[in-house]
Protein 1
Amino acid sequence: MLTDDTDRRILRHLQADPAQPMAALARRAGVTEATASRRLERLRQRGILKGQEAVIDWRKLGWEVEVSLRITLDKTNPHAFDEFTAAARLVPEVLEIQSFLGRVDMRLRIVARDMAHYQGIYRSRILTLPHIADIEALMHIAEIKRGEALPL
Amino acid sequence: MITLDDTDRMILRALARDATLSAGALGRQLGLSQPATWRRIKRLTEAGALAGRRLVLDQAALGFGVTVFLGVTLATKGRVSLEDFERAVTAIPEVQTVQHVLGLYDYRLRVVARDLPDFERVLRRRIMTLPGVGQVDANVLLSEDRRPGPL
């Protein structure tokens, strides 16, 4: 096993509050501060803890519309995945690009300032992406659970 | 809504890459003083634009080999309240995110599991038994690319 119970306990408590000081983290995880620091350093060195990123609330910045576009590609072209992905990366409003095994092939998470802006992006930047066979849109109404925590 | 200048945008971009940067280190990158940088971070945090931090972890190394996106349609709208479904679904540890959506489904879930048999267990025992759940559509994640967004 790559990690033991102590590593997981430290990561679980760090995940719940990534900004907390080392002393608080060590107390919650039931280890000394030196142990917590050493364990985190080892997890970083082995690439298991890759870092921390700030979560940006796009709605607070005036990007009111968020949409998941689920896309089926024309798989008769062997380069469809690569060319679609490369082109989607050039659209600034695209926040996430995922590929799947299942009913849909790709998902794009995109943000827009309002519905008119979304309509503009959809027509000029999304429908023009290569190899699209079909698109379904899911409009986000509310985030019920966020953070993508792992059940450590 | 908060208005941003170019310096604010650079701060958001830098912290989205590495949230552990101190105001001093970030200020040195941008040619700003530590107090000026700190004031801008404080303003962005108070406005809610900076909404916390997320650990970036190697899921596979921690034993989570499978991520699945589920589209859930409720079967009995009206009879089972949305609140009952939402309360029950957010309590499942393997469910990482829940979004209420408009379109082909009612909810979109991101679920993590050790492997496909473990995912099947979560699906049968925890997802299919949720109050009001109807049809469930699953897509297994192959690859993911997170972009910086329009900053």
Protein 2
Amino acid sequence: MSNDREFGFSTRTVHAGCRPDPTTGARALPIFQTTSYVFEDCEAAAAYFNLQEYGNTYSRIMNPTVAAFEERISNLDGGAGAVSFASGLAAQSAALFTMLRPGDHVIASRALYGGTVTQLKHVLGKLNVGLDFVDVDDIDAWRNAINENTKVLFAETIGNPGGNILDIEAVAEIAHAHGCPLMIDNTFATPYLCRPLEWGADIVVYSATKFLGGHGTSLGGVVVDSGEFDWSNGRFPVIADPSPAYHGLAFHETFGVYGYLMKLRAETLRDLGAAISPFNAFLLAQGIETLPLRMTQHVANAQSIAEFLEADDRVGAVSYPGLASSKYQDLAEKYLPGGCGAVFCFELPGGREDGMKFIETLSLFSHLANVGDAKSLVIHPASTTHRQLSDDELAGAGISAGTIRLSIGIEDADDLIWDLGEGLGALQ
Amino acid sequence: MTAVDMAKYQDPEVIRRTLAMKRVAIVGLSDNELRASNFVGRYLLRNGYEVIPVNPMAEMILGQTSYASLRDIPGPVDTVDVFRKPDAVPDIARDAVAIGAKCLWLQYNVISEEGAEIASAGGLDVVMDRCMKVEHARYLGRMHWLGFNTGRVMATRDG
């Protein structure tokens, strides 16, 4: 029998979820590129479909390679388990869809990734779910926005792209006082820099496409659940009551701490179908093996570059929360002692025209719509990632026409600073 | 109510020792196949355990003869697995001691310090706020097939 030692974070990044294959002895995570699985007998097949036993039925719902990736991330976050999806947005919508029904209400931070803002506004709106955006820094605003139909509070650990840091503990307390879970998008911090479940959050979602994978090769998303939220508190009949979509099964009563995850997988993933491919899950699990090493270099580079930009007269405000000048310094020390991630913005006083010229002058930063790659990336949010937002919404997310977003990679910091210097030098 | 020291009743060594014993009486086993107790009973039966239902409201559950109380069960019992309200546990614990069971296992949310102390004083191991199905799947089964966090980290082939 193995021992019961509590292994450290780095050990778990390479081992959690991936035991040597019992049949072949393969040490690497095998890629089970199969749609379906042969049943041992009819009784086993029935037991799997009835969720009475842990068994593989169909890769839209579960797959051994995908499961290894899910266990790895849930282990690193300290959750009861995880369910992964084809993308971060698919994971996020499934997490919400599982707990919401028409007439419900959601409260979200105003400082979110533009794609998330669009998803919340338009998809939830179509499903007749009410929505209020609040100033992420205003704790009273979170409290005041709650009404009798509110089902979940949602924010990012580090806001995209404004660098706002959520006071997780304070907002979790408000959520729990009203019988609601707090759901956090932890994409920018990763579990290496912050584990929101340890601060009272109930559900964590990721775009694994970003730092978890780190290589920019694969889309994927994941939902991690603490297993500790009481879905039977009277506010969530959609989870606690017998489900018409699963022959009357009451997921929380029957599966306890695993109730939400079982419903997320056996109903939402089954029915909405945004399954991750086994190959992507393999690549993302492989990426996680170097997460601590990469994040250390990401945050060290980001800190150096943020300090370089802040010291340059040609640059306006720099949003990196790790700067001594940041209003988030106290929250950063509390929630992100290992560093504030590697995505932040700065302002070019010349606005849109200078923004475009700056980006076109860079030769080491790639101009593209992603973050969290090992390679450094740059984009102009107002014309790309946050294009669907109104001017007011842009301002609420801390974006202006002259905002440039950087995602700092793991190259040599000196080379990145040289490239940014070339870009600034091209401005009049 | 004072908080129960759960770690004392969730010792992995005790859990593994208990899972190795195969004769399990399930107190409060329901014949409704949507109830958690029925899921656990069915799972244990399919994974090599002998399951003895203890439920005065039924004669047969999962194809096994059901008994009104632990004391009515013929022959020895290794583990007494409890799906009842916490205030029923002290009496069940006394019965478990009387029939010479080896472990009193209290399922999720079946929290009874008094019952645990009675069983411990009678020489039984006690597991509390844990599920036999989940723990079997964690150590011996397929919990990792569905993305759950088993908490188990190992690099050997037979782990």
